[in-house]
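Hello forum,

I keep getting stuck at the same step: I have a sequence, I want structure tokens, and every attempt I make locally crashes halfway through. Rather than fight my setup again tonight, could one of you with a working pipeline run this one for me? It's a single chain of 502 residues.
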Amino acid sequence: MIEHHVRVHPSADRLAREDQLAWKLADVATGTGEPDPDSAAMVVNRVIDNAAVAVASLLRRPVAVARAQAAAHGAAAHGASVFGAATRVSPEWAAWANGTAVRELDFHDTYLAADYSHPGDNIPPLLAVAQHTGRTGADLLRGITAAYEIHVALVRGICLHEHRIDHVAHLSAATAGGLGSMLRLPTATVYQAIQQAVHTTTATRQSRKGEISSWKAYAPAFAGKAAIEAVDRAMRGETSPSPVYEGEDGFLAWMLNGPGSDYTVPLPAAGEPRRAILDTYTKEHSAEYQAQAIIDLARRLREKAGALDKVRSIVLHTSHHTHHVIGSGANDPQKYDPTASRETLDHSVPYIFAVALEDGTWHHERSYAPERARRPETVELWRRITTVEDPEWTRRYHDPDPDRRAFGGRAVITLDDGSVIEDELAVADAHPAGARPFDRAGYVGKFRTLAEGIVTESAQDAFMDTAARLAELTVADLDGLFPAVDTEAVAAYDAGLPKGLF
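Reply #2:
Ran it on my machine without issues. Output:
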């Protein structure tokens, strides 16, 4: 591993492009070879995971809107598939529709370090371009591996959220790099594409603040679409704002730590295996990742807590990030609003803890149903739950050793009689260091659960067989990575949507 130091340079420095972060990332992309067996197996797991959450979201409005927009952009030749649709569309629009479907339920993989991310968001644009350009499963596998490597490196080294910049700025760079690896483009071309992608996808975190809207699902899809378009322009010889990271009017100087910015991004050395995907993890529950361990903790505390109408208060002692982003430290009244959107509720750890404590389970639809959120006893309990930052949990959240890193917290339940019940959980049960880490069987089980009633059993089996053979798939075989569903039922739902421009 090589530590690449990134700082702001005045234009007069004429920083050599080979010394720029965007070039270093492009070099990682183009230097990515065939993945080792562990990384390849994990890519298969994430392809399964993405398909699971995508098919479960097909009849949700944001996904249907994105699909309808994509349908208006049919491909003159080749094109790419869309989950739930019978026809192929232009690849950037397939990435838009499929990226939204994957992200809608907040239910796929995650990586948390200096910043946070959902690296699985790289897969829809890569798969779309692979189909459109006639790439094999081995090509796709290499591209996904490279995208994860770049994404994890950026998330380890550069914090965006402290400056209220949305995390998709790292995603677009990773996707552009992954596309370059998959297509075996020259390093110079990938360098230009990465810079274009970062420049066009830098946005504020308001998409994840206050009354959170459906844009939360669209944001990564937009980044994937923008990355495809950036690669297309770069392949045609177009250049980019440069150096996009280090320039005196660039990303670091004006979006992040200012002219004195100094970051360290750890990158693999030449010839070093690309194994960053193995440091990432998926979700067992449909909620913000920091809530995963909190849900498991609530389920564990359910019997100990007894009658919940006797609870005077619940305080969750947790990390700075959890307290300020999804806890009461965000100072968002919407996090305690029973009429709030689903997108807001899945970023409210007080709501999530209350429902998990009452129900002893979590469901991607039932736990967020309006009638569930408005249940009087739930609202009463919910408003007795607060979070506080505990410096020790913040330290553990950022521990450099991934085996010691913690994303959970400690719950202190005080009853009306003054007695106190306490328990804590460092990581979710499904985390690699958790009580029952997800393995291939876990991913398959998640897919079958979410696909039930949407994908027939035989179609589930066909998809699983195709995904498991990812490294051996031919160009035509990639179609099998889209589980067969009742496209007529999906089209009927889409027909009821309001019309837009397309």
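The first strand starts at residue 2 and ends at 7. If your local run keeps crashing, start a new thread with the error log.
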